[in-house]
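Request from the bench team (R.T.):
"We need a structural guess for the complex before ordering more pyridoxal-5'-phosphate. Sequence and SMILES attached. Just send the tokens back."

Command: build protein-pyridoxal-5'-phosphate structure.
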Amino acid sequence: MSTEEDIETYLDKEYIKKHPGSKLLYERAKGVFARGVTHDARFFRPMPIYCVEARGSRKWDVDGNEYIDYWMGHGALILGHAHPAVTEAAVNQARRGTHLGASHELEIEWAEKVTRLLPCASDGLVEFTSSGTEATLLALRLSRAYTGRQRVIKFLSHFHGWLDYTIIDHNPDLSPPLDSSYPPGIPDGTLRSVTALPPNDIEAVERTIEEGDVACVILEPGGASMGYLPTYKPFLEWLRRITRENGVVLIFDEVVTGFRDSPGGAQEHYDVTPDLSTLGKILGGGYPGGAVAGRREIMEMLEFRDEEGWEGMRVRHPGTFNANPLSAAAGNACLSLIMDGYVHPEINVAGRTLRSAFNDAFEDSGIQGLAWGTTDSIVYVGFGFSPEDLEVSDIHGYIDFQKKKAMNNEAIAHLDKAMINRGVHPMGSRFILSRVHTEEDIQKTAIAFYESLKELRGEGLLKEFI
Ligand SMILES: Cc1ncc(COP(=O)(O)O)c(C=O)c1O
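Reply to R.T.: structure attached below.
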């Protein structure tokens, strides 16, 4: 469905009818943005919704439609939109200056909270960046500088931001081969320095480390793409052992899982402590920010030293907005509330309730589908999936999983549209919760989900999944 002329379903007609203001803005946006949107994930056909305001679990679009929001700032807003304590901290700081061109106490407080919450940083150090992407970039550079090695191991579909090294999955040796087309704009040397392996594949990691020159292994500890394709605890434990034995730096990308899977992130949840963690999203309480945190001797590659020759070995890291006071104030307020211990029990109950309501809805409507989550507060839905499909540990399992996922894409787009028409805004196949989603929100979402399935089934849009 790409143009208005293609409209056939009630679903699409309703979507267009409810969003005339968004349509006008999208037409205007296409005059200034190549893809009409400002983040790949916000692209939506026939046009995305344009929002004007958000509070708590809700947001409103330019046409006056209200939504229960499950984007939650791409996972940054664990306390919900415009949380009073976070907003007050940020507004107070904005009045006192958003950039002091100097060091400030808030950045120390912010880093101290990270070291108190995150096991890998408890005796370690912190370095702030402006985004999760920058945090990945810095973690890879630190690992290479510390080990004196070049190669990076990542895992297929694990997302670490849009930097050259990890934005694509490069591995020409995989059998059966993956699509080996090289995306434009990324130097060959950069691609060749990174090897993407099947998730949870112990043998593949072992082989690659044996080949030598591996500086680090980076992964989303909860699973690929915010936990969509799970990582398993025994694999994390095994990774910890093999990286330690081989002097390879283990990096957990906790941009999503940090402060979400538990106050101490996935590493606390799975009880596996990496050498370094990257952070973002919740770290800044909904304001831009990122960080690398972890083992002192690796982080010390950033240190200024008077030693002869050190400057040539030191990792450099400028960045105008590193630890800016606005994000530091908001981040401190958010992490303080997480430290109080009330956020996680409540958000996890809400997530589990939503997940089981979705599974009931699949069953009641006779549609083959599954709702799952590697952390309770992010719920995934997939058509045609069964729990066994999530157990991927080699390239064959991965390819089967990808095929299932590809079969889903169209149905998920329909589902999103049907949900949006009912006042619920999912992030593709994800529903990201916040602490302020209420029981009523969850119930309304469950009803909207069931009704959407019925509508899609009635319109013949889910034929492959009946
Ligand atoms: C696991 C993970 N790492 C890194 C990033 C990149 O963070 P940012 O968008 O702040 O650059 C993301 C963003 O969604 C992410 O999900």
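Two things stood out. The CA atoms of residues 337 and 343 lie 7 Å apart. The pocket of pyridoxal-5'-phosphate is lined by residues 74, 131-133, 136, 159-161, 220, 226, 253, 255-256, 280, 290 (CB under 6 Å).
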